[in-house]
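Extended Data, panel c. Modelled sequence:
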Amino acid sequence: MPVLQLVLCPAFLFVIILFALITVPQGTLRRLFPYGVTLGGLLNVTKTYILKDLLGLIHYRNLGVFDCGGQMFFAPLIWTFLIILFLYFWPRDNQILAGAYFLAWAILAAAFGQVLKNAELFACEPWLYPLPKFLIFAGRFALTIWVVKPWRRRF
């Protein structure tokens, strides 16, 4: 297993956790953590099960010791903290900025999927990238905002 494949996801997870611990106050982190686990980690496992196991559209490759039931061990953990950061930095007072912020996160998520593909950790059907994959991530972030919106004043 090449070094890049071995360290890419653990290093990304480390950076995201470190950034969350530095920027998100502890009380807010505590309140956002259940949203991160359910709308990040659990939703990632569900999405992967549907797209990989049921539809056969995506495939993880070269996972080595990080293979966990055919899924990437670090992916739900990464998504947990990504959703925490997504919600914490959500622009509340500017709808135009909120729309751009939402689109930026969907684009960045699709782009990171391409990084995983280039590192040969991930493969998908050729027609799935870029637009359908972007729409999947946009739907994921839209679902997150829709679920959390009634409670977002708490954090």
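The chain is about 70% helix and 5% strand. This feature is highlighted in the accompanying rendering.
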